Amino acid sequence: MEPFLLQRSAGGVPPLSPSMTGAGAGQSFLSISVTDPVKLGSGVQAYISYRVSTKTNMQEYRGPEKIVIRRFSDFVWLHERLAERNKGIVIPPLPEKSAVEKFRFSAEFIEVRRRALDVFMNRIATHPQLHMSEDLKNFLQADEEAMERARSAEGSVFKKKPSDFMQMFKDVQMKVSDAVLGKDKPVEETDPEYEKLKHYVVDLEDHLAEAQRQSMKLVKRQRELGQVLSDFGKSVKLLGNCEGGSLGKAFADLGGCADQLSFKLQNKGLDLLLIFEEPLKEYVRTVQAIKVVMADRAQAYRQHRELTESSKLKELNLEKLKLLRPDKAGEVEAEVTEIKAQSDEAKLRYEEIVRLMEKEMVQFQEAKTRDLGLVLHDFACAQAQLASDTADAWRTLLPYLDNPHLGESTVTESG
Amino acid sequence: MMGSDEEEDDERRGANFFFSSALQESHPLAAKLADADQFGFQESSAQSSGSLQEDLLLEPPSYADAIFSRDLSHSMTAVFSQTDSFSNVLTITVTDPQKIPESGASLAAGVASSYVTYLINTHTNIASYQGSDFSVRRRFRDVVTLADRLAQSFRGFFIPPRPDKNTMESQVMQKDEFIENRRAALEKYFSRLAAHPVLRRSDELRLFLQAEGKLPLAPTTDMASRMLDGAANLPRQLFGEGSTILAPHEAAQPTKGGRDLVRLFKELKQSVTNDWGSTRPAIIEEDRVFLKKKEKLQDLEHHLSDASQQAEVLVKAQQEVGEVMGELGLAFIKVAKFEMEAGFTPVHAADAKCVATGAVKASRFYRECTAHCVQHLDTLHEYLALMQGLHTAFADRSNALLTVQTLMSDVATNNMRIEKLEAASNKFFGGNSTHNRKVSELKGAVKVTEEARDLAQKEYDCIKEHNRAELERFEEERQRDFTNMLQGFAHTQVGYAEKICNVWTEVAKDEMSYSGRIAEPFSQFYK
């Protein structure tokens, strides 16, 4: 079972294909895996460290292989850096920060997190732009002290401005939806296609979230059924002891069967969680990441528009000034040039985001079809296997139970 | 504290009362007892003494009557050797509850006075019923009466317990819900009665099912004696003998009026005596085989109760899986519809729809499977309910034994008195007339008591035999029914698991065709 799970650990993301290589880089190869979670520290300061192994042929890297030890906050640093420097790109999402579960650190929680981090790294590694990130290189290669320094240094740089939508996104998803849909800000794009896309993304999140919720419930209930079967099996066995005779044996067999099946069901519970519920969750987070890009785009657009307006206004004033006060015109002219440059920059930034976003959406839809297709397929297979196991288990009882002499009383009364 | 003279008088009066009436030829029971057995296997009795039987059953049987009705040993074998052929149909349904306002309602009490009647519909081909389809209206009180009368007439039998009175619940629950629950419980009760080879033939049941108008069965006796009956059993409970669960309607011997109080107090004294072991009566429950069996049955009941509870939990858990599977299906249908309309990823939409359909189908199968499992596992609940009847039957036996012991003790006491008197009177030359009179009186009383004792012994033996036969039947039916239950349950689980497996296998195949993925046998996934 283990080999299979590792195979799927990349969430079905295929290795880097030629079409995704950077310009002039030839056949880039970058493979990352996150393994071996180890609990370190104690009490409130306990944390999990992960082994991050890199295999690559990229020249920028110091050697073909490297192994480093990282903790969750290191991944958070990487995510923030990537987000800051790659506007317009959908940054792969991190698993939730769960402040509460962290303290419990159950084996299941750790495995779920490890997988999510592995998926995260692989999505970055296979992204045509992100895989070339300097920050990624540092993350994959720096020793622990350097990593720590980087982490604490960057903390202050990334102070969230109130108007920064990234902050809002981390807090309240709904507000972002509103902002994205332009419900509270007047200045927004009017492209109907883009409007449609925005609504699509918001609705998609809702639908996927609902599907994920139900999948979580299903996993939970199938596990509960497993537990209950165990109790049932026990009580039936005791009843069998009481009955004795051939009927007693029938009861005992039934109880044993229920017991075995229970064990199987409960084991499969974790697998179902990993192959079905978690990937769906990851996609919900990915859609949320798309919303971040949309918020960035809206902000870039706003800046572009504001600067354009501002620039026009200033130019107009300059013309007036040239007529009225030609002596002052010189200073203002410099300002105008400055603002015009900024305006152009903002325009370029905005257009870059638009361009990137278009590519990203295409990628996203392709990946979604592929990934969720596999997820759904795996789910169907898992359910089929579960049912098959169930049938097999109960079937073992039939030869004995179907014996026509079973129901005949063997009791002899003596008053 | 009664004086000895009074005591003796009372005894004499009591004894005479019991038996003089019954011994009279003109007693209405005599004719009946001469031929027919109480169980109605011989249909002729029903025809010959039609109206007479109605009359008889107007009055609840007295202690004496009860003894006499069990007297005929020849009828015992007739009862149990003849297997009731179940080609005789007796189907009873309970329908159409109606609220009837009570006339002359006690408005002072401020309670809305009305009661509910139910339509009891019978379909039968049993000859003694003289009819094949008929219905009567009865209220719950009538059912209580029926149950009480059956308990009196069929001591020693495993009588299915009637539905509870639920006086508290009737206030708390929604009226309609309560009425529906009761209707269903009544139907179940009657189906159990109809399934009992002996009870289904009883006159009490027949009258209940068939007699138009007011139920021609008098309810059992005054509350006082019933309370005392309870008291009589108290010492045994206090001393921790057995786990006889006493139902309120259970009356060891229905008593009539104040005279029987004397007997009751004597039985109370006797049972206390027994327990403290000061007087060792000749008969003790020496039937070790029976006692062992009783213990085993208690064990069985305990484990049956556990299994029954776990079965409920299991069925519920299975149902919940089915429910959430359905919800999951709906969620994916929404995804599919949404994606189809948006048009970005038609393949994904198709995948989602495929899984959604599968989930909905699987959900349906889960629910069907659960419904069948409920039916099968219900057998556990059924037998748990029936085992309540066992307690009553065993209590009947204990009480009958107690009566025998009491009477034996009576005889012994009186004999001792006779000895004393005879010894004392020998001191006088020619005898003491007072003493002689007393002695002859006592001798008369002893004779009567001995007869009573013999009858009580026969009654006890009869009940023992009923216990035995019922136990045998119980064993047989339980074996058969539990085996069927296990078979049914296993087959249901296998069948539906296979169906569900097929559903998902199809889904997996379809999906692969949509996305053109390479086939991966799913067994690879789990090693």
Automatic annotation (TrEMBL), chain A:
Protein name per the record: PX domain-containing protein
A Pfam family of this chain: Vps5
Record's keyword annotation contains Iron-sulfur: no
Annotated ranges, domain PX: 28-147
Entry keywords, A to Z: Coiled coil
Record lineage: Eukaryota, Viridiplantae, Streptophyta, Embryophyta, Bryophyta
PANTHER family per record: FI18122P1, SORTING NEXIN
Key word Coiled coil present: yes
UniProtKB/TrEMBL annotation, chain B:
Residue ranges annotated for the PX domain, each copy included: 96-215
Species of origin: Sphagnum jensenii
Keywords: Coiled coil
Listed Pfam families: PX, Vps5
Entry-linked InterPro entries: AH/BAR_dom_sf, PX_dom, PX_dom_sf, SNX2A/B, Vps5_C
Domain of life: Eukaryota
Ranges in a coiled coil: 290-317
Presence of keyword Coiled coil: yes
Name of the protein described by the UniProt record: PX domain-containing protein
